[in-house]
Automatic annotation (TrEMBL):
A molecular function (GO) term: ADP binding
Alphabetical list of Gene3D superfamilies matching this protein: P-loop containing nucleotide triphosphate hydrolases, Tetratricopeptide repeat domain
Protein's name according to its UniProt entry: NB-ARC domain-containing protein
InterPro entries: P-loop_NTPase (IPR027417), TPR-like_helical_dom_sf (IPR011990), TPR_rpt (IPR019734)
Cross-referenced SMART domains: TPR
Amino acid sequence: MSNTIGGSAQLHTAVQARDIHTIHFHPERRAWPTPRQLLAVPAVFTDRSDALAFLDAALADPPPTTAPVAVISGPDGIGKRTVAARWGHRAAERFPDGQLVARLRAGRPAPVGEVTRALLRALGLGNGEVLPWHTEELLALWRSVTATRRLLVVLEDTEAAEQVLPLVPASPQCAVVVTCSAPLPALAAHGARHHRLEALSPEHSLLLLGRIVGEQRVHAEPQAAAAMVLACGGNPLAVGLAAGEAVLDPARPLSDHPVLTAPTTTEAVTMTTALVYDSLPEPESRLLRLLALLPAPDFDVLTAAAATATPVVQTGQLLQDLTARHLLEHTGRCTGRGEVYRFRPALHDSFRTTAVGADSNKIRVLVVQRYLDVLTATAHATVQQLTPHHRVLPRQHRHLPSEPIRFDGEHSALAWLEAIAPAVQPALDAARELGEHQALVTLVHDLWPLFHRLRRLDLSVAAHKQGLWSAKLWGDHMAIREMTTTLALALKGTGSLADAQQRYQEALDLAAADEDLSGIAQCTMGIGSCLWAGGHYADAKPHLSEAARLYDDLEDLRGAALADILLGSAAARQGQPDDGVAPLSEAHASLALLNPPDPLNAARALAFLGEAHSLAGRHDLAVTALTQARETFEGIGHAHWCAHATEFLGQDAERAGAKEAALAWYSASLDQYTALASLRDMERLDARITQANLP
């Protein structure tokens, strides 16, 4: 039997009797469903026996140290995704641990970190804990979790080998299928095999047409049917779109189908897309055209309604209708967002071209403004739910959503932030392109819970650099200060302490010029926190003491408490633990009584108080404080601080001479850091375990 500490970390070592009361048994988390993300194969699927045979052969005899890779290339609409899905469904028993699908291009190449994060979440990671922020740590976690699994990974819309290679599992029991428009020679150098998917033969094109419109209509008008598939060039998507229009108008002869009079010089998918668009009712064509202007990988009903100024109920129905016509894809229901849709990859560029040609640039600007406004309004609702102490910047109220945005709790707010993260950079790029500087700054500012609670530090640094640039062009002094300060905080989180300290100094100079005591206090503490994080406790003390004094003068209980946490911890770690107990106790009491409360920082104060008691030799008090802090971190879902508190318990046990208990806590903490793929923390815990094992 193994004792469980926290979420999924397990104790692998016997525990001393004195520590039994600190270990808690928790029910196991509900099993995450095996991911089966392949598209359903249409009932009208036709032929492709050569491509399926290629995949059988290419993936049958894997190399001993890596997953085999097969590449399916071909033009838009030729059926690459469908072939991959067809083969994957046939081979499902070979991959009992799941079939994953990742789209590597949605208007722009998807960053490897975002793709890796999505794949890990599909396997159940990051749904009860925070995933690491650094791409290398994400990839390390991906390699670890795929090493012993049997998975099929389908990477769609790939543009370069560099997108694929980091995601190839090291396990030969896995397999990777890549779809792309053009061959990827660089993958061949790594052993990947390629197959070019060609157009359907005239016979199979006619068979596909008959399966959609009905064989009787094809037999009744064989010449018109043959001319239709010839006009579609054997492209399955083009045939499907043309056939779909015929199904919607059964009384119209095939010989009158507009595809027969369309220009033959136009590419088949572009031509049929234009014909379908022209046949749409005005509300559907308007919505489709405006959605094509969004700088977004996908959209939910509320976002689509707000961005296009369409009533919510009508938007939901129109999205369903467009999906039924196979112009959009329904990607599922997402917590915090509801039903989510996206353009079919082969059609998005065509509709964007149509939209740009049909609407003036003024319309595009208006759509993007509405989109930015609804993103910002929703992000602000997460601030109110998750970080109510966050400063509010001046904001524009141009296009407020027609319905109030509310979240029913922290879980749904965090789920929305996690789901929307891939849309952040495209939205910021669009805002910058259009000169929407105030909107850009406000959006970055209101996404604070994404950066802070979900530790998206890489995205935070990039976003705040853009935010600072836009704040300067906007010319709002407070926005410049706020972007500088939060950029410093993001840099500090990534370990770039010197850069962070420099940014804090810049923000301090701005606050001093404004004679803003609150800003001076915040930036002074920021400088002290950078020095504290680097272990320069003596250098940090004067900055932290000055910040605490300023906060006391301002009667800012929270600010003073945050400064006291670092002052108390610094004293304890400098060999004066008794001097640290009072400020840490006061900080915990103040933060626990705040309205609204600040449970995260209250628990941080308690954890450092436990460390101070431990350094002073008061081990019972240390265990009590650390256990309570750890339970709070676990309760609010902060996995990183839960692992820290577990590590503190190990250090306390080691100081108390309880070697086996120390090893148990260290093992538990290492398991938690490993689940987070926090490499620096893992290295530190490995060293602690090695040291504790020494005689």
